[in-house]
Amino acid sequence: MTEVNQLNKSELEEQLEQLKKKYESYKEKELALDMSRGKPCPEQVDLSRPMLDLVTSEDLLKTDSGVDVRNYGGLDGLAEAKEFFAPILGVAPAEVIIGGNSSLTMMHDTIARAMLFGVVDSEKPWSKLEKVKFICPSPGYDRHFAICELFGIEMITVDLLEDGPDMDKVEELVKEDATIKGIWCVPKYSNPMGNTFSDEIVNRLAKMETKANDFRIFWDNAYAIHHLTLVHDKLKNIYDACVEAGNENRVFLFASTSKVTFPGAGVAAMAASPDNVTKIKSELSIQTIGPDKMNQLRHVRFFEKEGSLEEHMKKHAELIKPKFDKTIELFEKFLGGKGIATWLSPVGGYFISIDTLDGCAKEVVALAKEAGVTLTGAGATYPYGKDPYDSNIRIAPTFPSLDELEVAIEIFCLCVEIVSIEKKLAA
Amino acid sequence: MTEVNQLNKSELEEQLEQLKKKYESYKEKELALDMSRGKPCPEQVDLSRPMLDLVTSEDLLKTDSGVDVRNYGGLDGLAEAKEFFAPILGVAPAEVIIGGNSSLTMMHDTIARAMLFGVVDSEKPWSKLEKVKFICPSPGYDRHFAICELFGIEMITVDLLEDGPDMDKVEELVKEDATIKGIWCVPKYSNPMGNTFSDEIVNRLAKMETKANDFRIFWDNAYAIHHLTLVHDKLKNIYDACVEAGNENRVFLFASTSKVTFPGAGVAAMAASPDNVTKIKSELSIQTIGPDKMNQLRHVRFFEKEGSLEEHMKKHAELIKPKFDKTIELFEKFLGGKGIATWLSPVGGYFISIDTLDGCAKEVVALAKEAGVTLTGAGATYPYGKDPYDSNIRIAPTFPSLDELEVAIEIFCLCVEIVSIEKKLAA
């Protein structure tokens, strides 16, 4: 491949013309392909169908420990559900709080409670402070940023590098500024980069000096067990690191089965230190009598056989790894060696993050949309929807079929090429 | 029966001695009977077992309108779930928002949002105001009061009379005081009195002049369809009344299937005016991708046959009406004509409310507890747990078996008699 930089004007113009012809021919097909959200495909969700047969009219509607799931009770979830989530979150069962169907809701509610009542160690509710700021390693997860916007929390963008957030920057910020109350992290197979925080980064997050006594790490371990290959990324246990550093109240951990069983009908959980858990439960006891125990029981029964969760996740990987492979293969085929885009090849998670030349992402997404390919909005991976480089695009390859994906990625690459060349020509 | 007032000291002492003997003999039995919460009994929850067979691995996991319940989506619930709740709430389906498993959570979250963001017509978030007050018709539901306490909302107690709140008092208060932002109502088969608001009360609530522009009625219609007899209490439609009065934004309505299908694994819903719904949905979209659609589908399929909900509720009534009847029968037998307690005989709902002589309720509950009968804490039916008369006790007769209930009510009546006579003797 030739780098676009090495082509002269007439070569670029010639190439652009050919690319545009190809683009027009795709456009005529009136496609409608969606790669905008990290959604499991139908075959993935069907892996969990047998779970629906484990809590029927014929079944015992009690847990092994004797809890009647037909009636009220159980503020923080079934003991068995806590045991299920404890190793995923890397904590003891007593440090787990089971939620409803959404870890996003648990994160939102955790911040809502901090705003209204403060957290352990807060002098006052965060909403009573002049200003509250969060550090947002970016590219990151748009729904985290949306929560900050909703609550009027000012977001500070820090680069997410290959081994995690730019810690020099993070440490400098939190050491000086007491209004910085938190940081968002998707530490494993991150959304959207697909990378995993290194041990050193985890240690630095646990140990760093913070001006705010009530600083909190929001550890959204959404893809803790979502491996694509047999070689897994290993993530250091941040709760242990925080305990060791004498900062055990610093971290809130979150996970769910949304991308394990059924998105929207899964089970979510969070974990934290005993003091945090005590405070949260006392506030939670006013909000709910408890989450859906029947659905917890379905999950517990589905995964009660040793190793069944790992087997189940392997089946997910078998379905989606070919899609990740195909995407990377096409990136290499159409964009490789041209000096117009860079990407990582994640070994887990739900996304591939690609960086175009600066100032191209918005146009690429718009052009793809015109040809029937919906991508996550450019900028969505940055606070306030504003990518300072206008270069990051999140690809969610899991939902479309392999055939649809192939077409969608081809069109996408075409759009990257067209916009890049146009930029070069205009320069 | 002889009124206690008409007995002389030695007659009272003699009676007291006999009652205490009887009490001691009960105490020796070391019973453990719980009538503290409004919980359906095992036979009631088993009525809904067949629901668990309607969403299995063999079933189509799509709604009739084509929504895939296996995956993400549906912020405000399935169209079919909204259609189910619309007539229960007395609104159009478009005015319904489906929630998770708990209407209590929807109420809590509605107030949390009001505190954080205000409601339609608010000048600022309620948490930014010096003071926020709510009117709490009492006796009322302890969990409503707990929400106010959590958010630091000052509660003003107003008497709940037989046809609803003391509206003269309510109108006077809300007309003058802009810090009064809301009122809690359980308008039908109320918790704990079991009475239903009259049409006139509903009209006055809808029409009354409020100093606060953003005043809200929290209309917890928890027992909308929970009739005990064929003659139902009729509740006037407050949403229509508010619309007619030009106050369509005034009311938030809530309901759930917690006491229809499975408590803790049911479906909750709320309703409000289009403007309210638009604002709520925009805030909700940051908190969740949507509630559990599989459980909604279970419910929709279970009740899709015309009249099946009514039939189902009749089966509930068949199971619990004998318990209400037995309670009233024993009240009449042991307490009737003695001038020491008054009660209503509700034709729906989950509770019987009994008023002892002033200053007796706490002692009665404590004495019953000592004999193994757990009642809702005395005072719980009033804001801050403080019954100004110390007279109201909430009886929840649904959970125990008829035999257990009979013993529990006998012990309870015994305790009322003992405490009343002791009061008389000490006077």
TrEMBL record, chains A, B:
InterPro entries: AspAT_Ic, PyrdxlP-dep_Trfase, PyrdxlP-dep_Trfase_major, PyrdxlP-dep_Trfase_small. Residues 2-29 form a coiled coil. This is Aminotransferase. The keyword Iron does not apply. Keywords: Aminotransferase, Coiled coil, Transferase. GO terms for molecular function: L-aspartate:2-oxoglutarate aminotransferase activity. The keyword Coiled coil applies. Pfam families: Asp_aminotransf (PF12897). It comes from Alkalihalobacillus alcalophilus ATCC 27647 = CGMCC 1.3604.
